[in-house]
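Hey L., structure's done. Input below.
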Amino acid sequence: MKGLKSGEHMTAQYPKWIWGFLYYHPGDPRLIVPIRNGKDHIFNYAKPMAMVLTVASVLLPGLGLLLMIAGLINFFDLVMANLVLIIVPTLVVLACVASVVASIFIREDEPGSGLLPSHGAIQVPWDR
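Output:
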């Protein structure tokens, strides 16, 4: 019996997912799609707007920090004038990263396939 090489199982099972957590499907008209376990959402990176939103949410907070370090704006101006442009996208990115990390470590749709032991090996209070 011939085994699968590393990563082939994920590619064969989810052909539209890059590295198992980035969704890329040009035929799907949606910009935001549910992730594989159906509890959270992620961008469809086949759409140009997904890349624009991702790059903007990474670069805008960095730009604000660089301007603050350079002394061109002070912290109060940064917070008050750029609340919507810097802090909110940063929180959105952090929430997305936390969601992706959680979905990698705890995947309830396939017991035993995440990085943590299978469901039932760890007892949580709400599972009793």
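The two ends are 40 Å apart (CA to CA). Residues 34-127 form one domain.

-- N.
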